[in-house]
Write a structure and sequence with these properties.
The chain has 254 residues and is α+β, with helices and mostly antiparallel strands. The chain has helices at residues 6-38, 46-50, 59-70, 75-78, 132-148, 154-192, 196-230, 234-240, 242-250, and strands at 81-101, 108-128. The chain has a two-stranded antiparallel sheet with strand order 1-2. Strand 1 and strand 2 (108-128) form a beta hairpin. Helix 1 packs across helix 7 (196-230) and helix 3 packs parallel to helix 5 (132-148). One of its GO terms (biological process) is amino acid transport.
Length: 254
């Protein structure tokens, strides 16, 4: 962002936002359709789902959490935690006065009743996880400021270019040794399984579902969108960014 002109980066950012929202919506819709067709969780134990507690979340609070996470008060904390509204319980006591009249007489009695009920109240909280949205918003704003500084920001641009190159080399090293660690992680989980046949079948169906969804989205939908927008061969473009795609696949990056 620092290397781009502010007007060009603004147009590019708006187009990127529209593209991201569109492809995300299509990906969610595709995933739901594939899951409904394949049913990867079919055959699992019925009591497994009953043990999970579903937390009720207000749509308004979820949207406000999204806004709050866009502007983290602490960047270091944003690397490990993100804001999330939690719900506490509060007991509310209501006092009611009941008038009673006996046999249409003038004598009446009053009875005071107290009714207590519990209500959920939103409480600010934190959950473990990288606040990627806040970091991205800060990085974009910071990059735009550096870009407007012209020559004064050249030192920072050179620093972040060198930092990016160092991180890419580190990621390349991790990608070479990651399969060894993944092998031992999977082996440890396999040893802990009680019913290897049932778990293997469920994981197999889950893997097939994920692969089919990725193929539909990556081979059909995205190239079609590229062709509709640019009127160019999408596979020529994919061949040019093949190395970046392999890196994203190896690091589980979007």
């Amino acid at each position: 962002m620092a290397a781009l002109d502010s007007k060009a980066s603004g147009k590019m950012g708006m187009r990127a936002l529209i593209y991201y929202m569109t492809t995300t919506f299509i990906a969610v819709f595709t995933g739901i359709i594939v899951v409904l067709i394949i049913h990867p969780g079919k055959g699992s134990k019925a009591e497994f789902g009953k043990q999970q507690k579903i937390e009720q979340v207000s749509p308004a609070d979820a949207f406000l959490d999204l806004i709050r996470n866009m502007f983290p008060p602490n960047l270091v904390q944003a690397c490990t935690q993100q804001f999330k509204t939690k719900y506490g319980k509060r007991v509310v006591t209501v006092t009611m006065t009941v008038n009673e009249t006996l046999f249409n007489s003038t004598n009446a009695t009053q009875e005071v009743m107290e009714i207590s009920r519990e209500e959920a109240i939103p409480v600010p909280g934190q959950v473990n996880g990288v606040n990627a949205l806040g970091l991205v918003v800060f990085s974009v704003c910071f990059g735009l400021i550096i870009g407007n500084m012209k020559e004064q920001g050249q030192i920072l641009r050179d620093f972040f270019d060198a930092l990016n190159e160092a991180i890419m080399r580190l990621v390349a090293i991790i990608m070479w040794y990651a399969p060894i660690g993944i092998l031992f992680l999977i082996a440890g989980k396999i040893v802990e399984m009680d019913d290897l046949t049932q778990m293997g079948g469920q994981l197999g169906m889950y893997t097939i579902t994920v692969i089919i969804g990725l193929l539909i989205h990556g081979v059909l939908i995205l190239p079609t969108l590229y062709f509709v927008i640019t009127r160019q061969n999408p596979f020529t473009f994919i061949a040019g960014i093949l190395q970046a795609l392999v890196t994203a696949l190896g690091t589980s990056s979007r």
